[in-house]
Amino acid sequence: DALRGGDPAYNADVARRIWAGELEGPIRDAVILNSAAAIAISRGLGGRPLKEAMADSIEEVKETLQSGLCLDIVTAA
């Protein structure tokens, strides 16, 4: 239930708050894990264990979300 979305307005608000670095909790955690997995796999592991690549990618995603850069990019268009 913690990951269940709502109507379009609710979902848009949640996305905006995540991209702005304003939302904590299981939805943000799911976004971080999915984004980190995509980054780690797209870059290739380079002989590193998946756990190490994921840890690096998770930190990168957290920093990017917290900076508000995601919201800046989305709203710049």
TrEMBL record:
The protein's name: Anthranilate phosphoribosyltransferase
Annotated InterPro entries: Nuc_phospho_transferase
Keywords: Glycosyltransferase, Transferase
Molecular function as annotated in GO: glycosyltransferase activity
Gene3D superfamilies the UniProt entry points to: Nucleoside phosphorylase/phosphoribosyltransferase catalytic domain
Organism from which the protein derives: Facklamia hominis
